[in-house]
Amino acid sequence: MNHVHLIAICGTGMSALAGMFKEKGFKVTGSDQNVYPPISDILKEQGIEIRVGYKPENLADKPGLVIVGNAVSRNNPEVEALLQSKIPYLSMPQALKEFFLKGKKKIVIAGTHGKTTTSSIAAWVLEACGKDPGFLIGGIPKNFERNYKLGKGEFFVIEGDEYDTAFFDKGPKFLHYEADVAILTSVEFDHADIFKDFSQVEDAFRKFIQKIPRESKLILCGEDKNLMKLSCETTCQTETYGISKEDKRSYDWSLEKESKGNGETIFKIIHKGNILGEGVTSLLGDHNLANLLGTVAALSGLGLSIDEIKTGIKTFLGVKRRQEVVGEEKGITVVNDFAHHPTAVRETIRAFKESYPERRIWAVFEPRSNTSRRNLFEKEYCEAFREADKIIIAGVYNQNLLDDEIRFSPQRVIDTLRNNDKEAFYIEKVDDIITHLVTNLKTGDIVLIMSNGGFGGIHGKLLEALKDK
């Protein structure tokens, strides 16, 4: 078998898997109905043929194996042809396990928040220490400029996704990975399109914890009460980490912030009451310090010295679309961030407010994810935005696909914020948002744009509009 075909190849994980197969020497093709840059350009540069649309004829050259992405359903015409053809097929995590994880020490990072950043930190620290790790991550670490690497070393870092696997396997992807070390950052309700309520999310993480081998290690964020409740489900060794001052003594791993300036934080690493060293990071916010600390705990247990870990952390550049400064024009900074869950929105705004207290923070938010488009968290969003100086909420993405009774209402949230003396605006369209911003922005302002999608290209359009002002 030398030809692998991927159905729904343009997803973040699937395109990365395609690149991994190509680098391993396979002929790789794929199909998708949503083919656009940058993924399409990356695949083309790798010599991977993309067949536009899902069609039976995409399988006419009889690939030896088909990987089925979770973006396609059972009644997809190409899937129907696959099932009739008797060609072997696997899901993305099955293929990753079968072809790339055997013989590796697997570091699996899971959780509602922070798993992409934590995975990226772990991969880079291992790389900086000369360990040549493999990794597959749901974002793009700036140090690598790609979201996967085969790696010749013993370690493989995997971002463990709780989303479902494929039409023939509705369980979470992370159940396919047998972790040697697992980091769990948090458990909250999310992915309202596949989970009915929090109990289903909780059950998914419970199964993940129960599947961790006895000889492995589980690193838990001790500040998350939901996680700690689930921790009794494991038979493996566990360690906790946390940065909150009031509970610091109860964690195996903690830290103390020494000082904070614009763009840099100095911290002391503490293990069971003993100070192990002092680190420096350019990441902003307590949530990212927690992500760093979880990585320290995991990699220390795998034999890396604190000095090695600190060196890697200092040179970590962050992740694209996570607190990413996309440009500055006329003294106004434009930031792109993936935050869409209310907890992530709150922590992201807080991080910038604490790091730049003298600057006005504009929070510009697009309700785009399957959870944020629903009215489940309207109260929580009202709280999440309160530390911003100015707030703009855009129209709900694809709002016509949701009934009125379940759809998120930007106007309700804006009205609540205004009743609490916040300057907040509901502006439905991107061009109108840009007009409002250009009219009202001042030198020194930070525009924090939060969405888990492209948001109509607002970042580039705003910078161009500011340039022409």
Automatic annotation (TrEMBL):
GO cellular component: cytoplasm
One GO BP: cell division
UniProt key word Nucleotide-binding: yes
Name used for this protein in its record: UDP-N-acetylmuramate--L-alanine ligase
NCBIfam families in the cross-refs: mpl, murC
Keyword ATP-binding: yes
Broad class of the protein's primary localization: cytoplasm
UniProt keywords, alphabetically: ATP-binding, Cell cycle, Cell division, Cell shape, Cell wall biogenesis/degradation, Cytoplasm, Ligase, Nucleotide-binding, Peptidoglycan synthesis
Domain Rhodanese per the UniProt entry, residue ranges: 93-152
Subcellular compartments: Cytoplasm
Organism: Candidatus Schekmanbacteria bacterium GWA2_38_11
Listed PANTHER family: UDP-N-ACETYLMURAMATE--L-ALANINE LIGASE-RELATED (PTHR43445), UDP-N-ACETYLMURAMATE--L-ALANYL-GAMMA-D-GLUTAMYL-MESO-2,6-DIAMINOHEPTANDIOATE LIGASE (PTHR43445:SF5)
Superkingdom classification of source: Bacteria
Pathway: Cell wall biogenesis; peptidoglycan biosynthesis
Catalysed reactions, semicolon-separated: UDP-N-acetyl-alpha-D-muramate + L-alanine + ATP = UDP-N-acetyl-alpha-D-muramoyl-L-alanine + ADP + phosphate + H(+)
GO MF term list: ATP binding; UDP-N-acetylmuramate-L-alanine ligase activity
UniProt EC number: 6.3.2.8
